[in-house]
Write a structure and sequence with these properties.
Structural class: mainly alpha
Helix content: 40-55%
Strand content: 5-15%
Low-confidence stretches: none
Largest sheet: 2 strands, antiparallel
Number of helices: 5
Order of helices and strands: EHHHHHE
Strand order of the largest sheet: 1-2
CATH class: Mainly Alpha
Number of domains: 1
Radius of gyration: 12 Å
């Protein structure tokens, strides 16, 4: 499972979702879906916009968690 750490990055940067929306041009509703880990997919253009606005790398924003029960 891919986890999105948008909430953590926003807190670290003392930024509100509305401010990120203004900087990226991405609707708050779409950012909220990402923030709450409800997204099924993310466009590269969205990822690039968020990383540019937060001055981070994709690996700072996302991580992989192995959910296999093997």
């Amino acid at each position: 499972m891919i986890e999105i750490h948008l909430d953590i990055l926003l807190v670290q940067r003392k930024m509100k979702l509305s401010e990120l929306s203004e900087k990226t041009g991405i609707q708050i509703s779409n950012l909220s879906i990402l923030k709450n880990n409800k997204a099924k997919a993310i466009r590269f253009s969205t990822l690039i916009s968020i990383c540019n606005a937060l001055q981070c790398q994709p690996g700072d924003l996302m991580s992989f968690r192995d959910d296999s029960s093997a």
